[in-house]
Amino acid sequence: MCGIVGCILKNNEKAAPVLLDCIKKLEYRGYDSVGIATVSDKINIKKDAGQINKVNLELDLADMPGNYGIAHVRWATHGDPNKANSHPQVDNTGKIAVVHNGIIENYEVIKKELESQGHVFKSDTDTEVIPHLIEKYMDQGMDLEHALIETIGTIHGAYAIAVISLDEPNKILATRKDSPLIVGVGEDQYFVASDSPAILEYTRNIIYPERDEIVILEPEGVTIKDKQGNILEKEIEVIEWTPKMAQKEGYDYFMIKEINEQATAVKNTLTEKENIEKIVEDLDDINRICFVACGTSYHASLTGKYLIESLAGIPVDVILASEFKYSTNTLNEKTLVIFISQSGETADTLKALDIANKTSKTLGIVNVAGSSVTRRANYVIHTQAGPEIGVAATKTYLGQLTAIYMLAGLLAKNNTLMEELDRVPEFIEELLLDTNSIKEMATRYKDNNDFYFIGRGYSYPIALEGALKLKEITYIHAEGYAAGELKHGPLALIDIGVPVVVVLPPGEDHRKTMSNLEEVKSRGARVIAIGASDDAMLISKSDDAFTINPDVTDIISPLVYIIPLQMLAYYIAIERELDPDKPKNLAKCVTVE
Ligand code: AGP
User: Fold this and answer.
1) Is 588 marked active-site?
2) What digits encode the pLDDT tens for the residues 217-239?
3) Which of the chain's ends, N or C, has fewer CB atoms near its CB within 10 Å?
4) pTM value?
5) Across-strand partners of 178?
6) Degrees (nearest 5) of the Cα angle 389, 395, 399?
7) Cis amide bond preceding 197, omega within 30
8) Which strand (E) or helix (H) includes residue 333?
9) Which run of H or E residues covers position 308?
10) What is the pLDDT of residues 340-368, one digit of tens each?
């Protein structure tokens, strides 16, 4: 949800090409507009609505003088995606420029007051109040640092801000509250950014500033202070991700690259076993678990409920993070609240985590090291999926499931599950060897307007996730249902030719779901079945089938059966000439409530 970057280089190197390169890596956070500001004898700004490649063709964003500057990609909240609303936003004089990720909740009141004092606003954004406030405080005699401190004392809401001022050259100031910000400490080059993939090419040495700390980038180095002006000693952490991991490496899109990395994501996450063993040992007195998450992470949580309740006998609730605050009365110190988030920065999830921390033990299952969830939860399991750039979560979902399976297996002391889990990478690799049938299916189903996905038990969350992937990147209406629920309403929607994807691994419920398949088929549905390769009945009854190694049991099926559904969504998006990495209206990291 918006991405910001700031960089300052020594030796008079041009910052604009570096800023452009960095901001491109954050395009997954927003693609409504892009802008860069650099400083020479004046503040130079190039910005416009549209994706980076388009704007760059028109404006040649790298061609700007100055050895430091700031950049932004926007996911619009306040104001249409047009040039005026693009960042950087400036003050009256054009001497102060700001990029911002977040929402200023009291901007209307501030704007009115500033207007009455003669400030002229040129955009509909909430952000524009920031440069004007800084201008106001500098006019009162404050330096940039104090004007920024005063400004963050005036605004309410969430922010990661980077600011430059012509009056204080060779300096970038930045700060954050409830929106992510990292500091990169390179050799003769210093950065701030919303997320580490932006700067991996330049440095892997990262500092994580806390709320309202003031970051000062200068050609000589980085200083971080508290609001009282005390210099803070911050630890520099070396991030394990490499620049290569955040590149397409020959694939057309990140999403297909990331789908193909899922066996590795599972393998790498299995290395978290020792960490999980320690957590489980420590949590021997819990009597209830609550999963809290959004979107795909919520679907992973649902699988966790089925697993933990059936194997470990611990009652489990699964709550959408945005609804969590309505369900907190029954939490206590024996409840473990598990927060699942690939980004670790989802605003709804963080709000819920802060609430849960007051009463209960909290555990984060997170892909991005150093993210806010990892710093606020009592315990952390890192999914080792590597950087995920495609907006649609794929390999991080597999990482989350792997972590949940290990947690369930260890809570239940179930060695068989742990052994089955070890075989999952091999099943995934085998599946990915031949996916041509999915590609062909995509050509046949690309023009359908509605899709239904059904599954029972462990396959129900797969159906939900398959539907989410399809609607997210192809804009086709898709719904996932528990197979048994069809007859309670949704069956009325089934008509001649409507595609119904039936997730049907082998197992004790096979016969029942097969009956549901028959029910939709007899009403004219076109059935796409995902099942075992030795399931002759399934193959004969479906219009299209994608088959999987029969050794993949019902219990581990979520880790494997989701992959053809991810691919179906991907290839339909390609057939519809859509960019699966950048679905409209969405962003990778949802930092607003
Ligand atoms: C998944 O494809 C979506 N992009 C979205 O639903 C996502 O899972 C959700 O926003 C939660 O994000 P998080 O895991 O980073 O918290």
Assistant:
1) yes
2) 999 999 999 999 999 999 999 99
3) C
4) 0.91
5) 159
6) 125
7) no
8) none
9) helix 295-312
10) 999 999 999 999 999 999 999 999 999 99
